[in-house]
Inverse folding.
């Protein structure tokens, strides 16, 4: 087991002195970065700034107990910590402020995130894992307040998992589970539900987690007393304090932000509890100052009175640190020793200013050179067109008047010039078009790459392996197929685990995990509390540490509790790090066609629109679902798999190659061939569409039925357009609300696949009513598309074109 800070601090006075001065210097560098960063924003060289001034000392103390293999999940004010653990340099800090798109110069996000959002790169260029035990790790920050908390739970729980789970390559992710996950959050953000849900779960699970609360007394302009039931979060959390002999609760440590030795002691104790006892710890850092206010968008003088501002000036952490250093003396062998003189500290202050200014200058020059090089490659080609249109000279003159040029200004000039010379086919214009296409591809990569995996393990690359059947293949309940497939998965992939409400002891509410906990243990098949947001968070954090979690959300309706984490965190992990991190979690849920308001909702359109970056897979039966699990466990994309809630007791033939067969993503399946109309659907609705198609056959209408299977990605080979080309009619049938998923499917088919060219009738959507179904079977019948609805509406298409052959029903 790793030693802790308490156990390793036996050093000479000279080493002690050097450490203190190094901390002071780093604190001053960080403060100067904040000061200069604000000026860069206010002078127009950067768009927005939010800085960590005032929090330097606690972050220096936290960094001292942060080891290789540890993880941080934080928010946007931890620049001093990032500097301390070598995850940030002065140059990369300003590169991020300027939105430099170079991964080398701005490795946290390649200019995609605003300043203060830090990350280390967990992946090699090819998308493979680095050795995370050889580096200090920061999971990519997000801005939504408390949104970082659920992920923190998973990062911490992974250490507990690794105490008993080993697999080939697991040494890259853990050393016997001795790593700590560190979380940081602003005091006002503890009013968010995600904070309480995460801390509650951590206290129940007893995971090695240290949460630092930076308490500056305000949430932007709103004082703490208006944020929570108690102004003092430590007092409010007192019920969480663990009791001796109990395996529940957490440790709570309160410490002042300006008291350097007390901070060192607080974090040393916190580390000891977390690393040696696997106990969650809250470090409540009080009396934090914020010298420049919340952000560059406003001034704290607007809401802080003179007394508060005066207090903040006196109790600034760096000022108090300086006082402590100057007042410190110790007698060693009869000689008085001091840490530094006032002159020596002033020299450090000046050196810090020079270092920051030099780093800022390098970052600005690098950023400007990128724009200058782009301009130099394009502008001469635009000037070559001056003779073709008089307006172009004006465009160039306007461009040259710009004091500060950005890439968008260059592209705007090119595109205006091409618009002005439309219809011309000169060599000069063609040369500009060629250059435009060339540089646009570069910027497309800079700003739009890595929404999904671009590695060799991306889901689209997983080959189809068809299910194998034989004379001995049994007809079983659908739940048995998925259960037996999970059995093969857990046997094949020791890094795979599943957790959720009722997932463990009873084998989930539909018995799809029956017997799995008994066979594979409570670590790998686990029950959770009723807390969907942190079930997802467990999955994200574990997946970031090399495990393959399946996070079960009991019903599709309940996934709404997860939407914020899915949208802001999971869906953007690869994008916001430009391929630097990944979290291939599988979200298992079930839904569709059940009865009643609360278990029959279809929030698919919300998932589709809010979670681009996550695959959305909608199998029509449990065999298809099993195949998708087999596919995604070979992939490094995250996915949500929606099992059919009414399919667990329906009979399916069980494949002989469980655990091996795969269903390809982005691949539709024609389940019934026809020549008159193409019916497109997915999930549980497919069975009803097949019933309707049989009825339509009796009415002389030959329907081709297509099961989409995968909404994201959608029909990668444009097979639906080929079907429409044959039938010349299109109907999209869906149990989502009007204009929901059906609108997405129509856009994909008509716009992207250009299938509108083949239509002889208006495209038709058959969707549910805009309310949720009332209870019982009649509620479903009158609320969602029934076979009768489908037959009548599709028949009406043919009545419109040939009323003699297809006389009106009503």
């Amino acid at each position: 087991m790793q030693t802790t800070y308490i156990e390793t601090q036996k050093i000479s006075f000279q080493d002690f002195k050097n450490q203190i001065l190094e901390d002071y210097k780093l604190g001053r560098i960080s403060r100067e970065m904040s000061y200069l960063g604000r000026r860069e924003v206010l002078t127009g060289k950067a768009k927005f700034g939010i800085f960590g001034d005032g929090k330097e000392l606690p972050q220096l103390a936290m960094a001292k107990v942060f080891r290789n293999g540890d993880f941080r999940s934080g928010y946007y004010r931890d620049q001093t910590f990032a500097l301390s653990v070598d995850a940030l340099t002065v140059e990369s800090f300003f590169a991020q402020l300027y939105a430099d798109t170079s991964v080398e110069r701005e490795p946290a996000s390649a200019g995609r995130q605003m300043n203060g959002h830090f990350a280390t790169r967990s992946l090699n260029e090819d998308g493979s894992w680095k050795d995370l035990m050889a580096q200090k790790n920061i999971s990519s920050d997000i801005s939504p307040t408390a949104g970082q908390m659920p992920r923190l739970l998973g990062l911490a729980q992974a250490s507990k998992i690794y105490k008993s789970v080993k697999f080939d390559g697991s040494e890259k992710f853990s050393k016997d589970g001795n790593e700590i996950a560190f979380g940081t959050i602003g005091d006002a953000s503890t009013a968010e539900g995600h904070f309480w849900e995460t801390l509650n779960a951590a206290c129940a699970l007893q995971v090695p987690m240290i949460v630092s609360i930076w308490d500056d007394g305000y949430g932007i302009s709103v004082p703490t007393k208006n944020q929570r039931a108690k102004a003092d979060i430590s007092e409010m959390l007192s019920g969480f304090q663990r009791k001796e002999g109990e395996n529940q609760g957490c440790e709570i440590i309160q410490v002042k932000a300006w008291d350097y030795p007390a901070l060192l002691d607080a974090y040393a104790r916190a580390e000891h509890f977390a690393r040696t006892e696997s106990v969650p710890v809250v470090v409540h850092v009080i009396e934090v100052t914020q010298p420049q206010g919340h952000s560059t968008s406003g001034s704290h003088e607007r809401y802080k009175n003179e007394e508060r501002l005066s207090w903040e000036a006196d109790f600034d952490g760096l000022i108090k640190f300086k006082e402590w250093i100057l007042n410190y003396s110790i007698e060693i062998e009869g000689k008085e020793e001091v840490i530094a003189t006032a002159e020596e500290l002033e020299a450090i202050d000046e050196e810090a200013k020079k270092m920051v200014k030099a780093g800022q200058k390098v970052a600005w020059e690098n950023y400007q050179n990128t724009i200058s090089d782009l301009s130099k490659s394009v502008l001469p080609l635009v000037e070559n067109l001056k003779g073709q249109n008089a307006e172009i000279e004006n465009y160039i003159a306007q461009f040259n008047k710009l004091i500060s040029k950005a890439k968008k200004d260059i592209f705007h000039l090119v595109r205006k010039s091409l618009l002005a010379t439309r219809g011309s086919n000169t060599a000069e214009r063609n040369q500009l078009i060629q250059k435009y296409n060339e540089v646009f591809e570069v910027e497309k990569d800079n700003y739009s790459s890595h929404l999904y995996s671009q590695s060799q393990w991306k889901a689209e690359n997983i080959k189809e392996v068809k299910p194998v059947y034989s004379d001995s293949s049994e007809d079983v309940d659908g739940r048995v197929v998925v259960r037996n497939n999970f059995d093969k998965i857990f046997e094949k992939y020791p890094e795979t685990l599943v957790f959720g409400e009722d997932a463990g002891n009873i084998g989930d509410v539909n018995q799809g995990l029956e017997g799995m906990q008994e066979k594979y243990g409570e670590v790998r098949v686990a029950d959770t509390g009723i807390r969907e947001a942190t079930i997802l968070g467990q999955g994200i954090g574990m997946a970031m540490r090399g495990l393959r979690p399946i996070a079960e959300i009991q019903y599709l309706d309940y996934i709404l509790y997860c939407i914020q984490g899915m949208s802001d965190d999971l869906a953007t992990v690869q994008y916001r790090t430009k391929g630097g991190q990944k979290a291939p979690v599988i979200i298992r849920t079930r839904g569709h066609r059940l009865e009643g308001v609360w278990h029959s909702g279809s929030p698919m359109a919300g998932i589709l629109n809010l979670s681009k970056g996550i695959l959305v897979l909608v199998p029509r039966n449990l065999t298809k679902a099993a195949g998708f699990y087999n596919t995604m466990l070979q992939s490094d994309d995250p996915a949500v798999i929606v099992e059919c809630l009414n399919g667990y007791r329906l009979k399916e033939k069980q494949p002989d190659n469980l655990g091996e067969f795969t269903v390809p993503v982005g691949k539709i399946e024609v389940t019934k061939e026809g020549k008159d109309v193409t019916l497109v659907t997915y999930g549980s609705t497919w069975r009803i569409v097949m019933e309707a198609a049989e009825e339509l056959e009796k009415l002389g209408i030959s329907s081709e039925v297509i099961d989409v299977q995968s909404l994201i990605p959608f029909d990668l080979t444009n097979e639906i357009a080929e079907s429409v080309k044959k039938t010349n009619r299109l109907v999209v049938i869906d149990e989502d609300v009007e204009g929901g998923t059906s609108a997405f499917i129509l856009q994909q088919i008509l716009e992207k696949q250009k299938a509108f060219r083949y239509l002889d009738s208006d495209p038709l959507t058959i969707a549910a009513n805009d309310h949720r179904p009332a209870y019982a079977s009649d509620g479903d019948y009158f609320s969602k598309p029934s076979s009768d609805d489908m037959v009548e509406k599709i028949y009406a298409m043919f009545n419109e074109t040939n009323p003699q052959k297809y006389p009106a029903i009503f």
